Amino acid sequence: MSVHSTLAVPLLFTNNFRQSFRLQNTISDHVVINGFGFWSGEDVQLEFCPAKPDSGVYFVRTDLSGEQRIPALVEYREEKQRQTSLVNGAARVDMVEHVLAALRALNIDNCEIRTNRPEMPGFDGSACKFFVALNQAGVIAQAAIRKIRLVAKSIRVEGIDSFINVNPSREGGSVYQYTLTPSEGYPPVNQDYRFKFSTESFCSEIMDARTFLSKNEADYLLAAGLCQRVTPQDVLVLTPSGPIDNNYRYNNECARHKVLDMVGDFSLTDCDWCGVFDSYRGGHALNAECVRQLLDNTILLDESFVPKNSNLMNIKQELQNRAA
């Protein structure tokens, strides 16, 4: 159960967290993008649509009868190899992490994503095309306050040869850190990356960091009949000496991509985070487990923590008056 108490919030942090509150956002207009899924090779179309305050991000499979919603929340996550998948009844969507990262980067909290296939398009294995399309559609403020979850105590979430350390942040906002160590078939170097979340830093530092895998892993997937349309020019296929038929965009691009995945996976909630999230060799499953544990070990800050006479509340009231 989440803690929700003003007494539980350290007084030292109060002003920082009040400054972290913001209005919820949706997109200004519909936007459509087309591509193909890396795993399936199927052509897919996504349509991003505005959504009402407090409706959250959710997917709709237009190729299925009933158009059932699939909320982008951790309780709908189903374990699937090397990706984040969401399931609600008979409806599922796969490879959603880069879509979610782009939405989170632009602080888009409410959005309907209509898709005619289960798998999201892969493009170049980054969040770049999703971010650009959503940014062009425009972001508009809504008359509702975005909740915050505050990390007030340190926790550690462990996996197999991996862990995430979570600590409070005295400055407010979110910090994501990742340490990548070599595995068999990969370049024999460590990679590290620290990312202080903001829209601007997402755009300039991690938006175009691409997914990666070893040549051995790529050969295995191809032999299994998967990823038939993907080439080493689409993603980073690595050997101990580096990428095949490609070049790094950053010398720590793999660690940056892992942080990109963290931003997407940690968005599987209805809140912003205030904390420091430090991952050592973590992946999608560990990210999701960390989010689950944080829901039971963080302080929920909602509109009741925002001063009634604040500029933010005045803007909210003005938006409500316009909609009336």
Can you offer a commentary on this structure?
This protein is α+β, with helices and mostly antiparallel strands and 324 residues long. It has a single domain (6-319), classed as lpxc deacetylase, domain 1 (Ribosomal Protein S5, domain 2, 2-Layer Sandwich). It is built from eight helices and 20 strands. The chain has helices at 14-20, 97-105, 128-137, 199-206, 215-223, 253-265, 284-295, 311-323, and strands at 23-27, 31-36, 43-50, 57-61, 69-71, 77-80, 83-88, 91-93, 111-115, 139-145, 147-150, 155-159, 162-167, 174-180, 191-196, 212-214, 236-239, 242-243, 271-280, 299-301. Strands 11, 12, 13, 14, 15, 19 and 20 form a seven-stranded mixed β-sheet that branches. It has a five-stranded mixed β-sheet with strand order 2-3-9-4-5, covered by helices on one side. Strands 6-7-8 form a three-stranded antiparallel β-sheet. Helix 2 (97-105) crosses helix 3 (128-137) and helix 2 (97-105) crosses helix 6. The longest helix has 13 residues, at 253-265. It starts with 13 loop residues before the first helix and ends with a helix. 40% of the residues are buried. Residues 1-13 have low confidence and may be disordered.
